[in-house]
């Protein structure tokens, strides 16, 4: 009897109210797992990402760390310099243009990322330094692990758009876009990047 009542209650909920697990494996054109790709699952009518906690893009060992940082729209990202040399951080990206003039060790600057998109970073002093800030409106975004996999929880069921970003994707904006339907039981799929 209780199972029937629970089934009846769940069947009356709109599909978007049900939350499900989503697992996505991303493979390169060679079939190998693609690590550090960013997967964003955008659900029609789903929640929007909100900033929480702190977000940091360090300059350490003459490199940006992490190489790829995912932040929600509206997040303030700090750029601390942990190196014994000065850095000059900049971006010419459409989603956020900025220029943090030379600053030294243990000094830091902050930037608010107020538009979704990919923000490529560089250092005007050290040409080998580069990184990316991925600014997203969806809370369902993650970087693939070494096995090319992301696992998300509590994703609303219903129609969705999956976006995969990686500098190695040869498509406009380095983004692969695919439609999907997230069932009440979830979604498990593999996406292969074609050249």
Task: Describe the model.
With 195 residues, the chain is mainly beta. It has two domains: 15-48 and 138-195, Immunoglobulins (Immunoglobulin-like); 50-137, Sandwich (Immunoglobulin-like). The chain is built from one helix and 17 strands. It has one helix at 2-12; strands at residues 19-27, 38-43, 55-56, 58-59, 64-65, 68-72, 75-80, 87-93, 96-103, 108-113, 117-123, 130-136, 141-143, 149-156, 158-165, 175-182, 187-192. A five-stranded mixed β-sheet has the order 6-12-11-8-9, with no helix packed on it. Strands 13-2-15-16 form a four-stranded antiparallel β-sheet, with no helix packed on it. It has a three-stranded mixed β-sheet with strand order 14-1-17, with no helix packed on it. It comes from Sphingomonas mollis. InterPro entries: Cupredoxin, MauL. This is Methylamine utilization protein. Residues 1-19 form the signal peptide. Keywords: Signal.
